[in-house]
Amino acid sequence: METIVLNAQVRTESKKGPSRRLRAEGFTPAIFYGSHTESIMLSVRSFDLKKVVEKGRKESVFVKLEIEDGSKKAERLSILKDVQINTLKKSVDHADFYEIRMDRELAIDVPISLTGEALGVEDGGELSTLKRELKISGLPSILPEIVEVDISNLGIGDSVKVGDVRLADGVNILDADDVVIASVAIARAAIPEADVEEEAGEVPEGVDEISEGEKDNAEIGRKDH
């Protein structure tokens, strides 16, 4: 796993006013927490935090927090568990860091990368990606940053599912085996024109189509009655 170092300072105020002042000074309010540790309110430089967020692999990157509390300093390993994004300002309003213990299993979502060119696509099919992340668990030291899934052998009508993925010993997949990751289907442009017309309401074979004259006579008959 890639590890990023991020400087942080302990903060003591948590209300909206102090948080707004922090953001105005170029810092983002944050919190560090874990299942076996007390929560610590932090502030981190917004510019540095944004670089972490922009990597786009939130839980699959370790963040080493170098925390300053007056004259005291401490290092804590974490993952960026959650962020609050201000869509108007395109900034991060708050960040949650979850503690990592190297001797304890961790469950995270990691990106899926499809590798190879599907045979079905070469034959004119269309590839559909239905799942982009995989939930896995294991000791932090053996968790992958990304899961590669080979789609080279997928023909038209084939799919690859979670149950087809194989990872290193000690890494467990938490998603259901029958969940489809990617599939190849017949491209709509390749469907015969007759089939498309029938789907659009074409009169099925064996059923006589009413002529325009018959339609007019039927309409006159209804009026006479």
Q: For the report, how would you describe the main beta sheet?
A: 6 strands, mixed, barrel
Number of helices: 5
Number of strands: 13
The rounded distance between the terminal residues' Cα atoms is 82 Å
* Shape annotation: elongated
Outline the low-pLDDT stretches: none
CATH class category of the largest domain: Mainly Beta
Task: Give the C-alpha Rg.
Answer: 29 Å
Tell me the domain tally: 2
* CATH third-level topology of the largest domain: Ribosomal Protein L25, Chain P
Proportion in β-strands: 35-45%
Output the CATH homologous superfamily of the largest domain: Ribosomal Protein L25, Chain P
* Average of pLDDT: 85
Protein model, in words:
This protein has helices at residues 16-24, 46-53, 119-122, 193-199, 212-224; strands at residues 3-10, 27-34, 37-45, 62-69, 72-86, 91-99, 106-115, 125-129, 133-138, 147-150, 159-161, 172-173, 180-186. The model has no long low-confidence stretch (mean pLDDT 85). The protein has two domains: 3-101, Ribosomal Protein L25, Chain P, CATH 2.40.240.10; 107-190, RNA Polymerase Alpha Subunit, Chain A, domain 2. The strands form three sheets. Strands 1-3-2-6-5-4 form a six-stranded mixed β-barrel. It is elongated. Strand 5 (72-86) and strand 6 form a beta hairpin. It has five helices and 13 strands. Helix content is 18%, strand content 42%. It is an alpha+beta fold and 225 residues long.
